[in-house]
Amino acid sequence: NRRYTIAVIPGDGIGKEVMPEGVRVLERAAALYGFTVEQRWHDFASCDYYARHGRMMPEDWKEQIGSPDAIFFGAVGWPETVPDHISLWGSLLQFRREYDQYVNLRPARLLPGVPSPLAGREPGSIDFWIVRENTEGEYSSVGGHMFAGTEREVVIQETVMTRFGVDRVLRYAFDLANRRPNRHLTSATKSNGIAITMPFWDQRVEAMAANYTDVRWDKYHIDILTAQFVLNPDRFDVVVASNLFGDILSDLGPACTGTIGVAPSGSINPDGTHPSLFEPVHGSAPDIAGKGIANPVGQIWSAAMMLEHLGETEAAKAIMAAIETVLKDPGLRTADLKGKAGTEECGKAIAEALR
Ligand code: NAD
Ligand code: IPM
Ligand code: MN
């Protein structure tokens, strides 16, 4: 019997509403496909935990999490009570760095039945992966804040790129492109304006490309790349980007496919030295939290990505098929897709559609 230990961390806001639906589908997939999921729920990495303990996670969070096969995460952040940089640097960004999850893998795929806000786009015409660097780059803690409150106040935050860090995410992206039918890779750059780190990024892309002669590759500056996402999304296959550029592109890509509410992601440690983490792209959505109307598909699709990562390919495919079946029915869509279904109704429908 295949058995997986999963750390389950719902977090804040709609994270707590979509997680039960993710878990419902996971359990159903396990029953149908003959594996066992042992869930270990944690209440930390949430602003509720912060309110009780004055910090986002216990000091021994690594011991408490142990060595699960994967981490299933909801969303974190509640800016009304904890400033975002405190809550995020104290939780999610710790996981990504401490667990060396250097790849953030995020699909943009137009699913059958889901209307794209872009005119004339059919299912299948948008289908690409964003590979985002996830441990360094613009998200750095190198910098300083001096002369606070005076007219001489200065803030500096450095971008950190290491050859090791850039090369490993590029290798992952080229490997992925090499396995796709179109074998095409696009690199997001800004080497015209950001004239030290970005030319270095370009140089490493070119060096890595030399190892992948079957992969066609190109690069766009990030400004025009965002325009191309909207104008010609069918152009893309694998898009590799630095931490910040990848963050921006991975909200824009899914928005072009109808809603960020369906988008999943994996913060992956490809070397297997630490657990990988699977979570929706979206945040805790304070504006709709508590109403039971959040779209659970991002969380459920993240479960599919997690199962794929664990080698349960058939179950992962079945979850995708169930998501597609349900989304084709306008009556089962949530409000972000102009439907009337609640989070639980949509989640239950997907669990029931599983075969
Ligand atoms: P958000 O993704 O939480 O919400 C943006 C908009 O999208 C909101 O209007 C929201 O209602 C809508 N939305 C998001 N997910 C949805 C879903 N599943 N169904 C329907 N509508 C959905 O981004 P934000 O408002 O910038 O951030 C809110 C908080 O979440 C902040 O604290 C932020 O730092 C945090 N955040 C966390 C993560 C994460 O945990 N990975 C990601 C992004 C933002
Ligand atoms: C994401 C989020 C995070 C990020 C925030 C909440 C720190 O936007 O997962 O995309 O920027 O990576
Ligand atoms: Mn983001």
UniProtKB/TrEMBL annotation:
Alphabetized UniProt keyword annotations: Lyase, Manganese, Metal-binding, NAD, Oxidoreductase
InterPro entries linked: ICDH/IPMDH, IsoCit/isopropylmalate_DH_CS, IsoPropMal-DH-like_dom, TTC_DH
SMART domains, per the entry: Iso_dh (SM01329)
Keyword Nucleus: no
Keyword NAD tagged: yes
EC number(s) reported in the record: 1.1.1.83, 1.1.1.93, 4.1.1.73
Molecular function per GO: D-malate dehydrogenase (decarboxylating) (NAD+) activity; magnesium ion binding; NAD binding; tartrate decarboxylase activity; tartrate dehydrogenase activity
Domain of life: Bacteria
Cofactor: K(+); Mg(2+); Mn(2+)
Pathway participation: Carbohydrate acid metabolism; tartrate degradation; 2-hydroxy-3-oxosuccinate from meso-tartrate: step 1/1; Carbohydrate acid metabolism; tartrate degradation; 2-hydroxy-3-oxosuccinate from L-tartrate: step 1/1; Carbohydrate acid metabolism; tartrate degradation; D-glycerate from L-tartrate: step 1/1
Reaction(s) the record says it catalyses: (2R,3S)-tartrate + NAD(+) = 2-hydroxy-3-oxosuccinate + NADH + H(+); (2R,3R)-tartrate + NAD(+) = 2-hydroxy-3-oxosuccinate + NADH + H(+); (2R,3R)-tartrate + H(+) = (R)-glycerate + CO2; tartrate + NAD(+) = 2-hydroxy-3-oxosuccinate + NADH + H(+)
Domain Isopropylmalate dehydrogenase-like residue range list: 5-350
Described function: Has multiple catalytic activities. Apart from catalyzing the oxidation of (+)-tartrate to oxaloglycolate, also converts meso-tartrate to D-glycerate and catalyzes the oxidative decarboxylation of D-malate to pyruvate.
Family: Belongs to the isocitrate and isopropylmalate dehydrogenases family.
Protein name: D-malate dehydrogenase [decarboxylating]
Provenance organism: Nitrospirillum iridis
